Structures are given as structure tokens and as C-alpha cells.
Amino acid sequence: MNERDTELLRITREFLKGCTCAPVGKPHECSECTEAFVEAAYASEMKHGAKHGPGSGGLDHNAIPFEKD
Ligand SMILES: [Zn+2]
Q1: Residue 64 in contact with residue 50, Cβ under 8 Å?
Q2: Ligand 1 center from residue 66 Cα (angstroms)
Q3: Which of the residues 9, 33, 68, 69 has an alpha carbon 20 to 30 A from that of 21?
Q4: Which stretches within 1-69 are classed as H helix?
Q5: Rounded distance from Cα 23 to ligand 1 centre (Å)
Q6: How far from each other are the two terminal CA atoms of the chain, in whole angstroms?
Q7: How far is the CA of 36 from the centre of ligand 1 (A)?
Q8: What whole-number distance in Å separates Cα of residue 13 and Cα of residue 27?
Q9: What is the tens place of the pLDDT at every residue in 3-29?
Q10: Is residue 15 within 8 Å of 27, Cβ to Cβ?
Q11: pTM of whole model > 0.85?
Q12: For position 58, what pLDDT does the model report?
């Protein structure tokens, strides 16, 4: 995987660990963690050259494709 994919994977795994305020297996039920996850993923995408931003109408045509392993 490239550096961007690796970083996004690390961010996702961190989120999926969950926290003490969310039920096991449901990390998305903690809004703080979810917000932190979205912000970290977004910052990573922007750092790696994504052109999309909030309110741009979706990621589809601007998202960076993932590399196949
Ligand atoms: Zn949390």
C-alpha cells in the first residue's frame, strides 16, 4: 500500500477500537470519536492531494483511487 492508504487504514483502525463511551462494536455511537475519525480521514485525504472539500458535492469524481494490493 502507498503512504496515503496506510495512513487511512491506521486512522480507521484507531476509530474501530472504540472508546469507553461507545458500546463494543459500535464506535460510531460516540459522536466525539466519529467526529475525530472524520476529521483525521479528511485531513489525511487533503494532505495527500485530494481536491474535494466539504460541500463540494461528493467524493466520487475527485476521490483518489485506492491502490490494489
Ligand atoms: Zn469516544
Answers
A1: yes
A2: 28
A3: 9
A4: 3-16, 31-47
A5: 10
A6: 6
A7: 9
A8: 11
A9: 888 999 999 999 999 999 999 999 999
A10: yes
A11: no
A12: 53
- Angstrom CA distances, 5 to 12, 45, 49, 51, stand at 10, 9, 13, 16
How far does residue 22's CA lie from ligand 1's centre (Å)?
A: 6
For the residues 36-64, what does the mean pLDDT come to?
72
Residue type, 11: I
pLDDT, averaged across the chain: 82
Sign of CA dihedral 38, 40, 41, 44: positive
Q: CA torsion angle for 69, 66, 8, 58 (degrees, to 10)? A: -160
